Amino acid sequence: MxxxxxxxxxxxTHLPQIENDQGRYTIALLGDSLFERFKTTGENxxxxxxxxxLNLGVGGDKIQNVQYRIDQGLLKSMKQHQQNxxxxxxxxxxxxxxxxxxxxxxxxxxxxxxxxxxxxxxDIPIIxxxxxxQRGLGVDIIEEGNxxxxxxxxxxxxxxxxxxxxxxxxMSDDNVHLNEFGYTEWNAILESDMKSxxxxxxxxxxxxxxxxxxxxxxxxxxDS
Length: 224
Description:
- This protein is an alpha/beta fold and 224 residues long.
- The protein has a single domain, classed as Rossmann fold, CATH 3.40.50.1110.
- The protein is 52% helix and 10% strand.
- The protein is built from 9 helices and 5 strands.
- It has a 5-stranded parallel beta sheet, sandwiched between helices.
- Strand 4, helix 7 and strand 5 form a beta-alpha-beta unit.
- This is SGNH hydrolase-type esterase domain-containing protein.
- One of its GO terms (molecular function) is phosphatidylcholine lysophospholipase activity.
- Residues 43-183 form the SGNH hydrolase-type esterase domain.
- InterPro entries: Ester_Hydrolysis_Enzymes (IPR051532), SGNH_hydro (IPR013830), SGNH_hydro_sf (IPR036514).
């Protein structure tokens, strides 16, 4: 689904970033403003400062807008120019939430998108991150949405990363975006998850490669 900001950010910011720094990135963040605002509200945190992380968040994006960017060649460009992507996080769906939560048709759109991402990246961990409690919606509504995301993750050999039950004080005044404290908390969760998965990848590399030297070189490449 076309949205001007999605179109402009894709062609004016993300594609040049992908194409101009060949092989630079090892981790991709795909989604909406919750990821994008690591560049502003969360600018001093490791998720933003790590130059191996490719932030592909766009403010206001619904699931269908992220799909539009994929249809415009996002994944193909990544496959061509960023061959070192080893890990991907997905956060979207917040802008699709209604009073009764995530609609079936939006969950289906999410499923279709993840299926396409998995087809392009059959061998890397793809992590679907949880929806936050937001917009004055009941906890039960958000939990139902997250159950749908968990089901999608399971269907496509992805993993689901929860935030946790205690979300006190994490939202900004608009009750849509995270505040500085919220980003600090989320950053800690993401950073811990990234480190654990990078370690697991390095162990696999050691088994497939030529011993400890291979594993150590790979770790340095990911974490530097």
